[in-house]
Amino acid sequence: MDLSTILGIIAGLSLIFTAIFLQSGLEIFVSPTSFLIVIGGTIASTLISYPLNEVISVLKVVGKVFKSNIKEPTIHMIELIYLASVAKKEGLIRLPGQAERMNDPFIIKGVQMVSDRIKRPEIIRALETEILIMQDRHKLGREIFQVMGKYSPAYGMIGTLIGLVQMLSNLSDPSALGPGMATALLTTFYGTVLSNLFFLPIANKLKRRSEQEFLLMQISMEAILSIESGETITLLEDKLSSFISRSLHDVLSNHKKTMKQEQENA
Predict the structure, then answer these.
(1) 144 and 55 in contact (C-beta within 8 Å)?
(2) Cβ burial 20-33 (10 Å sphere, 16+ → b, else e)
(3) Residues in Cβ contact with 136 at an 8 Å cutoff, skipping those fewer than 6 apart
(4) Percent helix, strand and coil across the chain, each rounded to 5?
(5) CB–CB of 243/215 below 8 Å?
(6) Domains of the chain, residue spans
(7) 208-242 confidence digits (pLDDT tens)
(8) Which conformational region is residue 230 in: left (phi greater than 0), alpha (psi within -120 to 50 degrees), or beta?
């Protein structure tokens, strides 16, 4: 579970509700009609903008926002270095079984191709295609939430205009102007909150998740190609180190020392 996402949503809602309770009661901020205008309108415009199957598929992507299953690059590198050491000591035939333990379809596919002696250009083409497919899938989810972040404030304004028209048509009753104006402004409130607390932050989080996954796939591809060409473990370590900041080099070195000690003890 990604704590930053959960804490951010809780903090945002807490601040809003606290501000409401300090000045008034919650009941004046409740308007099912206004909420339906914003949510219904946003969904309608999103369905007009994208095919139904793409909108539904985005629901699967939302789960990534609340999951923190993105592996640390240094941990990932250590596993790949160990995979390369297995290839050196026991041969390529042992690689697929070892790759299965990493539970990474991208690595499993690449390692299987190396084990099957597929030509290097074909391996590169296949892995690059996998990366492009991942980027396109994440890009679609991100775009849909960005679009929803734009539509919801717009429908908030539409709801406000509807409320103002209804209010102005009843000017004969001055006592109804205040409550009418408050109700009219609620749609703008709902639209703004949904946009800035949910839709746009989710789009940004999906973008960051995509960048993290892209980095891991680049690291994996570099390691797979290194194994295919029979490069030394030292050269592979140097190549993989270029993907992380200098501050993490010591962390990587410590992990490697620990791994070597475990192998020697075994």
Answers:
(1) yes
(2) eeeeeeeeeeebee
(3) none
(4) 85, 0, 15
(5) yes
(6) 3-25+34-74+119-265
(7) 888 999 999 999 999 999 999 999 988 998 888 88
(8) left
